[in-house]
Specification:
Rossmann fold, 6-stranded mixed sheet, disordered N terminus, 13 helices, 506 residues, 8-stranded mixed sheet, single chain, alpha/beta
Amino acid sequence: MKRLFLLSVLAGALAAQIRIDQNRNTLQLAAVSLLTQRNLSQASPEVKAEVDKLIVEARGHLNAHRNGEARRSMARASALLQGREWNAKEEYASSLVLRTSTAVSDPGRPVIVTLTQVYPARIPAPQGLRLTASLHRLEGQGPVAKPGAVVRDFGIFEAVSKDLIEEPYTFDLDLTGIADGVYVLVAAPMDFYETVRELGTRIAVVSGLDRSRGDLEQRLKKINGRDSAKATVRYPFDLARQVNTGRREFVNLDYTRQIAKSAEILKSLEAGQDPVTRSKGDQKRHYYLAQADEIMPYRVYVPAKWTPTAKLPLVIALHGLGGNEDSLLSRDDGMLMKLAEQHGMILAAPLGYRSNGGYGNGITAQTDPARARLLQLSEADVMNVAEMVEKEYGADPKRRYLMGHSMGGAGTWFLGGKHVGKFTRLATIAAPAVNPETYPFAKLKDVAIFVAHGDRDPTVDVSASRTMVEKAKAAGLSPEYMESAGANHSNIVPQALPRIFEFFAK
C-alpha cells in the first residue's frame, strides 16, 4: 500500500514539467535567466527590491568564487519572484542536484548515480529521507523537455543521509535491455511520504559504443588525409568522451543515428570518395581543436550557386548564451539559411567551444584562469572556423562578415574590434555593451556596422545598444541602427535578419 501511495505521489509530481539536469546550467545562464525573470515579474516593488539585493549578493559570491553560495542567493531570489516561501525545506530542496558517472552509456554497463548538494543546507525530516528513482522517455527538447512514459522503475532507496555534502547518496542503475535513445532519470528525495524535490538528469543509451569506436579507429588509421571527414566520423565518440568526463554539457544527440552516419562516411572514404568536403547545402561539420584535444562541431550552409571558382561572401553567425552551432540556423523556420541562399552567401556557425564561451569577450587581468582558458578557446574556435570555411570554399576575404545575437552580439563587437581587417561588416542583435568607454571604435573606420535591438528587451536592456551606437558616432563612424518597438530579446531576431542581409549585400 505504501508503495502504491509513493508511486501516485511521484506520478502527480511528474504531471508538471520538472527541471532537467538541475544546476547543470552555467552560472552565467542561471544569472541571466534570473534577471529576465525579475524584469518580467509582476511582483511588488518591495519583492523586486529584495530580489535586487540578492542579485548583488550573488554577484559578490561569484566574484569571490563562492559558486555554491551564489546559487543559494539566486535560488532564494527565484523563489521570491514565484511567490514561494523561502523556508528550510525550500532552501534544502534548491541545494539538491543529481549526477551520473556516465551520461552516455552502453546498456551493458551500470550507471553510478549520486545525489548531493551544491551548497550546505539542512532539513528537519525527523523520519529521515528516502529516494525513488525511475527512467522515463524524453519528450521534447531544450527548455520544454520533460519526462514522458516510465521505462523502468528502480524502486525505493532507504536511509538517505540528510547531509548530502558530507555523505552523498550513491546508487547504481541497471540499464540492461533498455533500447537505444535519450532518457530522463527522475529521482525524488522524500521526507517519508512527502516529496522534497523532483530532480532529473538525461542519459543516452548507446549499444556497442566502445566496440564501434574501436572498429572505426582501426579502419581510420589506414586512410591518409581527409581530416574534415575523419573528424565527422569520430565526433559522436569524442562527444561521448567529453560528456562523460564532465568537460562538456549533455548534448541531445541521436548517437545511434550519428554512429550509423559515421560508418557510411567511413565506407565512402575507404572507397576513395570524400562525401563531406566542399559539399553544398546545410551541413553539420567537425574539426579537431588541438588546444582543447577535442573535436569541435560547426554548421555550414553553402548556397546552390556556389562553384569552386566562385568567390562568395562568408557570414559567421554567433549564437547567444546557452545556445550552440545549430541555434541561429534552426530557429524561425531556417530563416538564416534561406537568406544566405537568397543573397548567395556562405554561412558558418561555430559552437564557440562551449555554450557559454563568450567568444573571448571578458578576459581581464583578474579573470579566473579556468574562465580565461574557456574564453580563449571560444575565440580560437570562431577564428578557426572562419579560416577553414573560407579556404575550403574559396570565399572572398574582402567580404567576410560577422554577426551575432545576445552573447554572440557581444562576441561580434569584441572580435570585430580585436581582429581588425578580418571582418569588413559587423552586425549585432540584442547585444550587451562591450567596454563602451575604451572600445577601439577608431580602428573600425573601414568597417560597416549594423545594430539591432528591441525596446522591450527584458534580458539585455536596449540602453546597451544605444550606448554603443552613440559612442561609435562620436568616434566618427556611421552605424546603421534599428530599434524595434515592442520587440523583446527573442523576436527581434527574425525582424532584424532580413535587414542584416540587405546590409551585408550592399
